[in-house]
Specification:
about 260 residues; alpha+beta; L-fuculose-1-phosphate Aldolase; eight-stranded mixed beta sheet; 8 strands; about 15% strand; globular; disordered N terminus
Length: about 260
């Protein structure tokens, strides 16, 4: 990865600007929900082959504005932006985008309940909850913890583990969610944490009793039903931006 000096450009691109606004909205709302961890973790959006938007190093998600979002290339050069980039952001995200064409938006977090499942030997999402069925047949598990992602080899290994799925639980680490748009990826991120929260709470309160498993045929039926209602994610994301406009003036500034 080449560490080019960050710089700004006066030329405006409407698609890139909308992508910056969407990423800033997702980052700020994720912070409201406690899905962030310090100034770590990253959200990215592919604009074109080898052109990605990504949040910068050193900013808390709650303070990121659209103008803070970086534009980078596949080698890690900063093409537009006034900040630097955190190395693991590049190595994880660039390789996932390149190896998984469906991964236009990539969200990597250490959000609490989903990460808790990655700390359990053989931890898996159990098909016992309607929210969980949203992910039926869509989850990959990386059961090998291989340290901090600080080189291309680890980035490629992580990207290969996703293997065309939309959700990946990363052993002893966190989760990665991908989608065709920021809104769809954020919807999956939000409901994934809710799914894992319900499962953890159910296990804690079960006093050793088994979770109520939903039969496979019903899992498939409900997964298809939820897939047919994905416009709910678009409505949800639009409402997030309205609430940010109301509560946090300046969040969408491109200046």
């Amino acid at each position: 990865m080449k560490k080019a000096k960050p710089h700004a450009t006066a030329r405006r691109d409407s698609v890139a600007d909308q992508g910056r606004i969407d990423l800033a909205a997702a980052l700020r709302w994720a912070a409201r929900l406690g899905l962030n961890e310090g100034v770590c973790n990253h959200f990215s959006l592919e604009l074109a082959p080898a052109r990605y938007l990504i949040n910068p190093q050193g900013l808390h998600w709650s303070e990121v504005t659209a103008a803070d979002i970086l534009l980078i290339d596949a080698k890690g050069n900063i093409l537009e932006g006034r900040h630097t980039m955190e190395p693991t952001a590049f190595f994880i995200h660039s390789h996932i985008h390149q190896a998984n064409p469906h991964a236009k938006c990539v969200m990597h977090t250490h959000m609490p309940f989903a990460t808790a499942l990655t700390l359990i030997e053989g931890g898996r999402v159990e098909w016992c909850n309607q929210n969980a069925l949203r992910y039926y047949g869509r989850i990959a598990y990386d059961d090998e913890y291989n340290g901090v992602a600080l080189d291309d080899a680890e980035g490629r290994r992580i990207a290969a583990k996703l293997s065309g799925r939309d959700i990946m639980f990363m052993a002893s680490h966190g989760v990665t969610v991908v989608g065709p748009t920021v809104a769809r990826a954020f919807g999956d991120l939000y409901y994934l944490e809710r799914t894992c929260m319900h499962q953890v709470l159910a296990v804690q309160g079960a006093a050793g009793r088994p979770l109520r498993a939903i039969p496979a045929a019903m899992c498939e039926t409900v997964a298809a039903q939820i897939a047919g209602e994905r416009q709910q994610d678009d409505y949800f994301f639009a409402s997030i931006k309205r609430m940010l406009d109301r509560d946090e003036p300046g969040w969408s500034s491109l200046a």
